[in-house]
Amino acid sequence: MAKARKLDSSKVAPMSSKGLPIDIGISEKDRATVAAELSKMLADSYTLYLTTHNFHWNVTGPLFNTLHLMFMTQYTEEWEALDSIAERIRALGHYAPGTYAEYARLSSIAEPDAVPDAETMIQILVKGNEAVAKTARAALKKADTVNDQPTVDLLTQRLDVHEKNAWMLRSLLQ
């Protein structure tokens, strides 16, 4: 059996130079910068997805049905967005991170150590959505400075989703 190859993702590596070079009007250096920011976005998004799915499975209490359904809506949307983020990294000529180790290193979101009560779940998810929004905003600034409109568009859409999710979750705490 072949031994699995461990990827060193200490920096975003460009894809092999075999074949046609990428010529989309954004320099390799700028594409690498944006891909690195999108990799952080992917890591934060995956961590939030996993946390939200975990809470969907494990929520209890009087708000069970409301939270169970809300968490499912949010993690399903997040799951679908992961592919768009990873594909944008690939379109920029770089490999997308795809391991728990890479996500742990790149993410700004800490995973919970245990299953919290429902109110704490909501608080954690508010903070998680806000963290993803901050990561998206930082990546958007980099993409905008290099005139990368597809990435700006993607990140604008992600900002809208995460700011709305944070608002909806925060409303449950009032």
Task: Explain what you see.
With 174 residues, the protein is mainly alpha-helical. It has one domain (28-171): Ferritin, core subunit, four-helix bundle (Ferritin). It has five helices and no strands. The protein has helices at 28-58, 64-91, 100-106, 118-145, 149-171. Helix 1 (28-58) runs antiparallel to helix 2 (64-91) and helix 1 crosses helix 3. The longest helix has 31 residues, at 28-58. The N and C termini lie far apart (56 Å). The model is unreliable at 1-13 (pLDDT under 50). Belongs to the Dps family. GO terms for molecular function: ferric iron binding; oxidoreductase activity, acting on metal ions. InterPro entries: DPS_DNA-bd (IPR002177), DPS_DNA-bd_CS (IPR023188), Ferritin-like (IPR012347), Ferritin-like_SF (IPR009078), Ferritin_DPS_dom (IPR008331). Residues 36-174 form the Ferritin/DPS domain. It comes from Allopusillimonas soli.
Give the CATH architecture. Answer: Up-down Bundle
* Strand composition percent: under 5%
| Net shape | elongated
User: In the CATH hierarchy, what is the superfamily?
Assistant: Ferritin, core subunit, four-helix bundle
Domain Ferritin/DPS: 36-174
GO molecular function: ferric iron binding; oxidoreductase activity, acting on metal ions
Protein name: DNA starvation/stationary phase protection protein
Family: Belongs to the Dps family.
